[in-house]
């Protein structure tokens, strides 16, 4: 899996590796829109990756599935899908731009799941490239265990070749082909310094305790022994070799590391597996002859082919025409209902960008594409029908940017529901909300770029035009004081009339008090059977609101007097009287608009804590405190009105240069300031 910030050169590196192995004739260019992994029409237009893409190649008889991941924070869902499907991560860092905060966050994500990692410094032939400085930054930011395997040889801004620190050979690329020779004497000091650090780092991770003693005594250590120990250290996630790459330089060395230094699928820990009741299942390994356990890591919808599921096979073997059990659990809050169904596998293909090449099987450790699994969604488990299993879902980030939309025309409205259903099935980071209070359709997205891609797909792929509208935050109403009011519903126009009079006392309750209805009728002035009718009418009016159309909360209503008629009184008559009494009360005493207040927990680098706290205060927020989290990061807690944070996902990313994250939890309702309440009432 290739990981790194946008513009670091991941897609370009994939092209170089595919060309170096003969998978493609010549590398494409992002600027020309002809790369293998950026084939989506959105990616071609925007010239950046927004999807997880697979690019398989074969080197020395070993198949490698390259996973090109987006480098923009909005598409972290595809990054985490890649983490689940991959056996190792290759961090791509530009020699001209260095390491940014987002790359550091991605490194920490990989560290949390124990993902083996290596680093490749790209663009070493760029005019602003500084390999030594970027290497030092990587060692400082990524911590211990980062050491180079190769050093670039650059003369007058031109990359002539690479020096292998383990082999002590100079790989010359000056003629366009790789040739091997001894490095010149002028590189001896540089080689000795970096080689010593590299060997010591490898030996410290070795299980052979005698190696360090032999090395310190000056005994030569066989290169094969060092490579074997390097592979074990990388597989444990405790050592991180650094390579370098430029135009026409470094692809062979990188392929050698992938085939000799990266762990195989057999060494990759198996995710937690249970049966459908939740009982853990032990003993399943990456065995083609074992029980089938596979996972849908990405779903796409093609208007011509239909639904395509990208599947990582963890155990067993997938074959065309076999029937599998599809299980999806735990994402009901994102619009993915729990489901357990049996489906038949159709054609199996090996994806190379947009090309789909038919294959006879998908064995354990491989990644394949399955077409037309009608019920399978991203994150679902495929297993044997006779022994259905479930893999623990990977953690998906919460979408925190709400975007309200509406169909542009009646024709678009008819197609919108189906199109959104397909987008939700593809993308677990998208949440769809049909807000009953505000009567708005809301897409909860990861950020502005995520929103743009979703709306683009609605228009271009599904033919549905929508427009963004102002988001309405659901408010509440309450009474500002205590008063008494009468509801009179008397209508006698011939035939069966209506007669109901009720006297109510209303008063506000503390925040969170809800609704209380108190019966203080004495002497039967309101017959017992009609007292619940009054309450029902009051509740109905509270749901509709009395001022701005928002539900009313935190009110105590006391029924203390009234009148009835032996013939014309009825359940409906007293319901209407209760509604009229509540409206009358609203005309006698002030009413307040209440706004929802959330608790925010903002995790940000120490450098941005001051800016974040100042910004939260400017949003009418109350900062509750801060606490250090790990090294160089701080958690800021605050209470902030929801009206002020509808676009906070965008603003925080801008303030923190893409490194800040936050969570939000509803706390309570509080009175809206009078100046804002006036604006809201006028707008409604």
Q: Could you describe the 3D structure shown?
A:
Helices cover 27% and strands 32% of the residues. With 684 residues, it is of the alpha+beta class. The strands form 9 sheets. The chain has an 8-stranded antiparallel sheet with strand order 17-16-22-13-14-21-18-19. A 5-stranded parallel sheet has the order 1-4-5-11-6, with helices on both faces. Helix 1 (10-20) packs across helix 9 (251-260). The longest helix is centred in the C-terminal third of the chain and has 18 residues, at 571-588. The protein is elongated and about 110 Å long.
Q: Please give the count of helices.
A: 16
> How does the helix and strand content classify structurally?
alpha+beta
Quick one: overall form?
Answer: elongated
Proportion of beta-strand residues: 25-35%
Q: Low-confidence runs (pLDDT<50, min 5 residues)?
A: none
- What oligomeric arrangement do these chains adopt? single chain
- What's the helical proportion of residues? 25-40%
Q: What is the straight-line distance between the termini?
A: 51 Å
**Sheet with the most strands, sense and barrel status:** 8 strands, antiparallel
Give the neighbour order of strands across the main sheet.
17-16-22-13-14-21-18-19
Quote the average pLDDT.
Answer: 89
Number of strands: 36
Output the radius of gyration.
32 Å
Keywords: Elongation factor, GTP-binding, Nucleotide-binding, Protein biosynthesis
Pfam families: EF-G_D2 (PF22042), EFG_C (PF00679), EFG_III (PF14492), EFG_IV (PF03764), GTP_EFTU (PF00009)
Organism: Nonomuraea thailandensis
InterPro entries: EF-G-like_DII, EFG_II, EFG_III, EFG_III/V, EFG_IV, EFG_V, EFG_V-like, P-loop_NTPase
């Amino acid at each position: 899996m290739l990981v790194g910030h946008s513009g670091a050169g991941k897609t370009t590196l994939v092209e170089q590796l595919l060309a170096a192995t003969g998978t493609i004739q010549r590398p494409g260019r992002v600027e020309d829109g002809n790369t293998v992994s950026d084939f989506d029409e959105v990616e071609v237009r925007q010239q950046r990756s927004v999807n997880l893409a697979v690019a398989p190649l074969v080197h020395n008889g070993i198949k490698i599935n390259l996973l090109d991941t987006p480098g923009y924070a909005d598409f972290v869902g595809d990054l985490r899908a890649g983490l689940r499907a991959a056996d190792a991560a290759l961090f791509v860092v530009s020699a001209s731009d260095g390491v940014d905060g987002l790359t550091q966050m991605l490194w920490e994500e990989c560290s949390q799941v124990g993902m083996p990692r290596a680093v490749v410094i790209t663009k070493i032939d760029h005019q602003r490239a500084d390999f030594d400085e970027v290497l030092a930054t990587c060692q400082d930011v990524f911590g211990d265990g980062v050491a180079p395997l190769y050093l670039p040889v650059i003369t007058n801004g031109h990359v002539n070749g690479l020096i292998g620190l383990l082999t002590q050979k100079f790989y010359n690329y000056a003629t366009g082909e790789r040739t091997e020779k001894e490095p010149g004497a002028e590189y001896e000091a540089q080689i000795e310094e970096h080689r010593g650090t590299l060997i010591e780092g490898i030996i410290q991770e070795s299980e052979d305790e005698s190696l360090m003693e032999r090395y310190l005594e000056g005994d030569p250590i066989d290169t094969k022994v060092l490579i074997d120990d390097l592979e074990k250290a990388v597989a444990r996630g405790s050592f991180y070799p650094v390579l370098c790459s430029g135009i026409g330089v470094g692809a062979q060395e990188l392929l050698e590391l992938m085939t000799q230094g990266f762990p195989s699928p057999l060494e990759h820990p198996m995710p937690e597996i249970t049966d459908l009741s939740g009982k853990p299942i032990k003993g399943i390994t990456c065995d083609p002859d074992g029980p089938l356990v596979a996972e849908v890591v990405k779903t796409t919808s093609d208007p011509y082919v239909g639904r395509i599921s990208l599947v990582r096979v963890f155990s067993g073997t997938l074959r065309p025409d076999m029937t599998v059990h599809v299980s999806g659990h735990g994402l009901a809050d994102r619009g993915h209902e729990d489901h357990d169904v049996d489906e038949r596998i159709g054609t199996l293909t090996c994806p190379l960008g947009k090309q789909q090449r038919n294959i006879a099987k998908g064995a354990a450790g491989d990644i394949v594409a399955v077409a037309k699994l009608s019920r399978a969604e991203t994150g679902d488990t495929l297993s044997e029908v006779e022994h259905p299993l479930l893999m623990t879902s990977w953690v998906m980030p919460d979408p925190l940017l709400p975007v309200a939309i509406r169909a542009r025309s009646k024709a678009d409205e008819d197609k919108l529901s189906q199109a959104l259903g397909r987008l939700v099935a593809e993308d677990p980071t998208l949440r769809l909300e049909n807000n009953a209070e505000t009567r708005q359709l809301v897409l909860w997205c990861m950020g502005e770029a995520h929103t743009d891609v979703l709306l683009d797909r609605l228009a271009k792929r599904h033919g549905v035009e929508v427009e963004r509208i102002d988001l309405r935050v659901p408010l509440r109403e309450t009474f500002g004081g205590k008063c008494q009011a009468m509801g009179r519903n008397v209508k006698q126009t011939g035939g069966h009339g209506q007669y109901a009079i009720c006297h109510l006392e209303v008063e506000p309750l503390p925040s969170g008090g809800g609704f209380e209805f108190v019966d203080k009728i004495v002497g039967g002035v309101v017959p017992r059977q009609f007292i619940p009718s009054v309450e029902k009418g009051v509740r109905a009016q509270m749901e509709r609101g009395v001022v701005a159309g928002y539900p009313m909360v935190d009110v105590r209503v006391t029924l203390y007097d009234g009148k009835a008629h032996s013939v014309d009184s009825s359940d409906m008559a007293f319901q209407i009287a209760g509604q009229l009494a509540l409206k009358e009360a609203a005309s006698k005493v002030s009413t307040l608009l209440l706004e929802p207040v959330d608790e925010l927990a903002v995790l940000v680098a120490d450098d941005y804590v001051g800016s974040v706290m100042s910004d939260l205060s400017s949003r009418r927020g109350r900062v509750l405190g801060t606490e250090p989290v790990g090294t160089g990061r701080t958690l800021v807690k605050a209470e902030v009105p929801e009206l002020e944070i509808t676009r906070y996902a965008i603003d925080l990313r801008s303030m923190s240069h893409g490194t800040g994250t936050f969570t939000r939890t509803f706390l309570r309702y509080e009175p809206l300031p009078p100046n804002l309440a006036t604006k809201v009432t006028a707008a409604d």
